[in-house]
Amino acid sequence: MGFVADNILQLKKKLPDTVTLVAVSKTKPVELINEAYQAGQYDFGENYVQELLQKYVHLPKDILWHFIGHLQSNKVKYIAPFVHLIHGVDSFKLLKEINKQAIKNNRIINCLIQIHIAREETKFGMNENELLQMLSSADFNELKNIKISGIMGMASNTSDENTIRKEFAYLSKLFHSVKNRFASTHNLDFTILSMGMSSDWEIALQEGSNMIRIGSSIFGKRHYTHI
Ligand SMILES: *Cc1c(COP(=O)(O)O)cnc(C)c1O
Fold this sequence. Notes:
about 20% strand, globular
């Protein structure tokens, strides 16, 4: 067995059935993705549209592709025919474009709203007020071909566990309050709380995450030069 399959099996042993593992394969070749697939891994995460498209054509069609990067509105059309879940939705403008492309493809596209929880200003995402305002608006109510399945967040890049835990706890609390408050909204069905990466997934699980996005712990360190 190769190291990728081995890492996946080891990791899955530690995860409850209720948690979805998204294997983040950005910058990694199709051979390694195939190895993961052979080991029973079907959910994969990619950050770049061009790279995802190249991989999509070469890999089995029952793979569930998660787009976890920062998505530009003008690129939505390329992934709309097949993407399983878009994690990084951070504006109403982007959501409207996803809805438009979903209509063209006669499908409903599942989305997560990215919430900014980290200290770093460079990270993307809405804040709580922006989220609540958007979900309450008449414009949002008109989007019939998207479904908001939950929220996603990235904790600060720090070794301070307390900071990470506080950020995840905040996101978890927001998830549950929105789930209750908007329970009867037709295009919202909060089931997914996507938080946790290689360095912090254990804390994320303790704080209620049910979807973790793991890259380097499965595929090894990334080298960005070849993309
Ligand atoms: C790259 C990436 C990951 C995976 O990061 P690792 O630290 O390698 O596990 C998870 N989520 C997002 C949004 C990413 O961009």
